[in-house]
UniProtKB/TrEMBL annotation:
GO terms for molecular function: ATP binding; ATP hydrolysis activity; transmembrane transporter activity. PROSITE patterns: ABC_TRANSPORTER_1 (PS00211), ABC_TRANSPORTER_2 (PS50893). This is Cell division ATP-binding protein FtsE. Keywords: ATP-binding, Cell cycle, Cell division, Cell membrane, Membrane, Nucleotide-binding. Homodimer. Forms a membrane-associated complex with FtsX. One of its GO terms (biological process) is cell division. Its main location: membrane. It comes from the Bacteria. It comes from Halomonas korlensis.
Amino acid sequence: MIAFEHVGKRYGGRFEALANIDFRVRRGEMVFLTGHSGAGKSSLLRLVMRLERPSRGRVMVAGHDIDRLHHSQVPFYRRQIGVVFQDHQLLFDRSIYHNVALPLEIQGIEPREAARRVRASLDKVGLLHREKALPIELSSGEQQRVGIARAVVSTPALLLADEPTGNLDPQLSADIMALFEDFNRIGTTVMVASHDLALIARLRHRVLRLSDGRLVADEEAA
Ligand SMILES: Nc1ncnc2c1ncn2[C@@H]1O[C@H](COP(=O)(O)OP(=O)(O)OP(=O)(O)O)[C@@H](O)[C@H]1O
């Protein structure tokens, strides 16, 4: 699903944020990406989303060298990927329902079909009963679950998350990770950047560890 082939990323032509990164993630795998602050986790995820382009090497996603996408194809490419951020980036003047519906509106999905998908997504994260609420009325854990519902509403084959449990307490963090595992179980390829080593160790998935822009460990699930 994802292949990094000797990928390097320099910012401003000088600073080397990633060097010689080489790994593959199989379709249907769930992988954690870990490493100290500044190790390059976000940069790696941004390369997969094609928000950044590699300075060296190739990033292949679903068999395509994504650097070769024409710029007109990039929005379509990004819509195939579900993304969850730490600061869930909800629109605070829209209801929970309309936040989750947004990707479907952009794709021009017919409203009745969109409603069915939005409700299925909200049900999956346990928030169907809050569909009319505004984000401000929800706890931060609930807001994060809305972000996840929005990321999966288009049933993406690939789900990326950047520190999705950053601000949450241990129980809520475990709940969020369990949701990712649920999506992985139904076939979604999942890649989660996290520095929560205790949580990662309990979950028994493959771990890619970055340090100073290098891939220093690739540990298969125990
Ligand atoms: N747009 C940019 N321009 C210049 N330098 C950048 C840019 N984005 C990231 N960097 C630098 O690249 C390095 C890797 O950053 P990155 O955000 O990928 O790390 P990270 O592992 O996600 O860290 P954190 O856990 O703190 O978010 C850092 O030293 C950072 O300062």
